[in-house]
């Protein structure tokens, strides 16, 4: 029973850590936007960039 309680506590702590991280990321994004540092791309450009990224990852993993 104690191990289940520990697992649940660890799971809760992970969620809190993730929530804290996510809040920090959102705040940083808004800060960048307010400071004019954000770069927005169209959906089409984002898809192209993601496909390029995936191709690089696949090529890198192929060599392993």
Explain what this protein looks like in three dimensions.
- This protein is mainly α and 64 residues long.
- It contains two helices and no strands.
- 0% of the residues are buried.
- The model has no long low-confidence stretch (mean pLDDT 86).
Layout of helices and strands:
Blueprint lengths: L1 H33 L8 H20 L2
Structural features:
mainly alpha; 64 residues; 2 helices
What is the overall shape?
A: flat
Weakly predicted, low-confidence segments: none
How much of the sequence lies in strands comes to under 5%
Kindly report how far apart the N and C termini lie: 42 Å
Quaternary status:
single chain
How many E strands? 0
Alpha-beta classification = mainly alpha
Give the number of helices.
2
H/E series: HH
Q: Using the CA coordinates, give the radius of gyration.
A: 19 Å
Mean pLDDT, rounded to whole units?
Answer: 86
Q: What is the helix content?
A: over 70%
Largest sheet: none
Brief digest:
The chain is an all-alpha fold and 64 residues long. 83% of the residues lie in helices and 0% in strands. The longest helix has 33 residues, at 2-34.
